[in-house]
Design a protein that fits this description.
By secondary structure, the protein is α+β, with helices and mostly antiparallel strands. The protein is built from five helices and eleven strands, in the order E-E-E-E-H-H-E-E-E-E-E-E-H-H-H-E. A hairpin with a 2-residue loop joins strand 3 and strand 4. Helix 3 crosses helix 5 and helix 4 crosses helix 5.
């Protein structure tokens, strides 16, 4: 397993880690059979060679959020977990256009997405390493929350990503982080499953709107730095 919190499900969890493109992205077949062309308002990238799974993932992402493992062509993953297989296969492809990727975190209770994260800057890449146990976290100084019922948007001027909270569970986590707290303390005080709280925190830290603090230092005043363990 690679060191990322967005590859497969947590033990006993039902979080869903979904990938999609921005609205201005179009995906078309290339001149060659094994090529795909990804086009957006200011650029074009030809992905080749692109195997059947790569082509299917990109096609589905144009239509909306997709579980990568669900797009694996039958038998391609062998005995490997299809979600891990697809993640490793798509990782170098996604590295070519990270600013086009939108991330969505869902919960398998048929009530829709918890939150989604979209890039604000060219080349903005989102990597989601698991949080260190016992880390003290807080909202980054300068973060603003704008409400547009039924959702809320979390962002700051220097952030590379915008976070949209779609459900009250995600809003509860953000509200709790107005004061420093560990992931364990946040989970213990909220009326939602602990693994859901931790999953939300993973993404908030990755987006740069929540950061680590220590009792001896002030809350972080900058965002956009890549979390530890976020290599390509």
């Amino acid at each position: 397993m690679v060191g990322s919190a967005d590859v497969a499900e947590r033990a006993g969890g039902r979080l869903r880690h979904l990938w999609s493109f921005r609205e201005d992205v179009a995906v078309a077949a290339g001149a060659r059979r094994d090529a795909v062309v990804v086009t957006w308002e200011t650029g074009t990238v030809a992905v080749e060679p692109a195997g059947p799974t790569v082509r299917e993932v990109l096609r589905r992402m144009q239509l909306g959020p997709v579980l990568l493992g669900n797009a694996v062509v039958a038998g391609a993953a062998g005995e490997q977990d299809p979600h891990v297989y697809a993640y490793l296969l798509m990782r170098p492809v996604f590295a070519r256009f990270p600013q086009l990727l939108r991330r969505t975190v869902g919960f398998d209770d048929l009530r829709g997405a918890l939150l989604s994260i979209g890039p604000l800057a060219e080349g903005a890449a989102l990597c989601v390493p698991p949080l260190r146990a016992g880390a003290v976290l807080q909202l980054v100084v300068g973060v603003s929350v704008a409400f547009d019922s039924p959702s809320a948007t979390v962002e700051m001027r220097s952030a590379s990503h915008r976070v949209v909270l779609h459900r009250y569970e995600a809003l509860l986590v953000v509200a709790r982080l107005a004061w420093p707290a560990t992931p364990e303390a946040v989970a213990a005080t909220l009326p939602i499953p602990a693994h859901v709280t931790t999953g939300i925190l993973d993404y908030l830290v990755a987006a740069g709107v929540v950061g680590p603090v220590t009792p001896a230092s002030p809350p972080p005043s900058r965002s956009g730095s890549r979390p530890r363990g976020c290599g390509r």
